[in-house]
Specification:
176 residues, mainly alpha, Rossmann fold, three-stranded antiparallel sheet, 5 strands
């Protein structure tokens, strides 16, 4: 009888613990903007960045983000299926650009990066002038948001003495 009473008490305590967990799960986790609004703001920032490149090399579709699983779409397809190599690089640069504005576009619940590192954005055959426009835009965004952008590259970056500083390697790598 004593073991049965202990089992009932243990079962009752377990049911109370499950009820408490259910109540915690139903409580909102974030006091800020709804996930759909956050995804929409982030996608809008990416689309604003990509508007300058629409048609060539960017495709003629907008970016959207499904809030339930954070899947990025271009048009009706996931981004990695909808884009060729050149457009994928622009997509990732647009994503980087949008992250610089997280605090500005969203709310205090979102931390923004203090530093954005780009490893040779002159890839996948993207036109040199397009990358220079991207770097200029990123430099302006860094200035506006109080962040820093660092990029490694073989080509000379765009001239902009107010926002872009070039640090040359003392001994560049030799070609193999």
């Amino acid at each position: 009888m004593q073991r049965r009473d202990q089992a009932r008490e243990t079962l009752k305590a377990a049911e109370q613990a499950v009820d408490a967990l259910d109540n915690e799960a139903s409580a909102p986790l974030v006091a800020g903007a709804k996930p759909t609004d956050r995804c929409s703001a982030f996608a809008d920032r990416m689309n604003g960045f990509l508007a300058e490149f629409r048609g060539d090399p960017w495709v003629d579709h907008d970016v959207s983000i499904r809030d339930s699983d954070l899947t990025f779409y271009v048009g009706t397809r996931p981004w990695d299926q909808a884009l060729d190599a050149e457009a994928k690089v622009l997509f990732l640069l647009a994503y980087s650009y949008a992250t610089l504005f997280l605090e500005h576009d969203l709310d205090d619940e979102c931390a923004f990066p203090g530093l954005l590192l780009l490893d040779n954005p002159y890839q996948q055959g993207i036109d040199e002038n397009a990358v220079r426009r991207v770097l200029r835009t990123l430099a302006q965004a860094a200035s506006e948001t109080g962040t820093q952008v660092m990029s490694t590259q073989a080509l000379t970056p765009p001239a902009d003495p107010k926002t872009i500083r070039v640090l040359s390697m003392p001994r560049p790598y030799a070609d193999p």
